[in-house]
Design goal:
- With 224 residues, the protein is α+β, with helices and mostly antiparallel strands.
- The chain contains six helices and ten strands.
- It has one domain: Mog1/PsbP, alpha/beta/alpha sandwich (Protein Transport Mog1p, Chain A, 3-Layer(aba) Sandwich), CATH 3.40.1000.10.
- Strands 3-4-5-9-8-7-6 form a seven-stranded antiparallel beta sheet, sandwiched between helices. It has a three-stranded antiparallel beta sheet with strand order 1-2-10.
- The radius of gyration is 18 Å and the shape is globular.
């Protein structure tokens, strides 16, 4: 009973005791129920994505309630050109997490958008080209009062899905300065956008956690 209820963190401690046990727990998604090595899992079977978040990150309950009441709502299918410009439609995050008591500047969220089936982000070039275009034309375009800087861009293929990861900063004329890690992937007729952001002043203390979240992001066939 103590293990099932995670009494005094007993189950979490057991599942976190060594790398082999942690890998077993995560591969079997036990971290949906119990924190493993300081992280829990966001698992959306209906939308087809998952990732881990620090145990002190909480689900945005307002957003969760809206998503539950409005049901599955997708954008009109986008052409390749409309997807490239991507400023015509703005999607609300499907899920969002952040630390308790924060101002909202530190958070991680996932947006799902409809795209033509079989669409490949690779038509826009490699990871570096995509990231530079996104910064210069969407996130920190001229006249926006924002300055963007690309720190790094990479891509990897996992089980046939290409994941594009961008690390960048955005500094505003209004005084805020944020560090971001984003992951983009497509599967079927869905574009998945994972974005984690944090004030630059907190980046070094949370760097490892942010990359752990980004590297854990996976998409799969929704189950309903």
């Amino acid at each position: 009973m103590a293990l099932g209820a995670n009494f005094l963190g007993a189950t979490s401690s057991l599942l976190s005791r060594d790398e082999a046990t942690r890998n077993f727990a995560r591969s079997n998604r036990l971290d949906v129920l119990y924190p493993v090595n300081g992280y829990t899992r966001c698992y959306s079977s209906s939308k087809g994505y998952e990732f881990i978040v620090p145990v002190n990150y909480l689900l945005d309950q307002t957003m969760a309630s809206r998503n539950a009441t409005r049901g599955a709502e997708s954008l009109d299918p986008l052409s390749a050109r409309e997807l490239e410009l991507r400023s015509r439609n703005v999607s609300e995050p499907d899920s969002a997490y952040g630390p308790m008591g924060s101002s909202g500047e530190e958070n991680v969220s996932v947006i799902t958008s409809a795209v033509p089936r079989g669409f490949d982000l690779g038509v826009f070039g490699g990871a570096g080209e995509q990231a530079e275009w996104l910064l210069n034309n969407v996130l920190a375009k001229p006249g926006s009062g924002k300055t963007g800087k690309l720190i790094g861009a990479s891509q990897r293929v996992i089980r046939g899905v290409t994941y594009y990861t961008f690390e960048y900063t955005i500094q505003s004329d209004q005084g805020w300065f944020r560090h971001n890690v984003a992951v983009f992937a497509t599967r079927g007729s869905t574009l998945y956008t994972f974005v984690a952001q944090i004030p630059e002043s907190r980046w070094l203390s949370m760097r490892d956690s942010f990359f752990a979240m980004a590297e854990s992001f996976r998409v799969f066939v929704p189950s309903g």
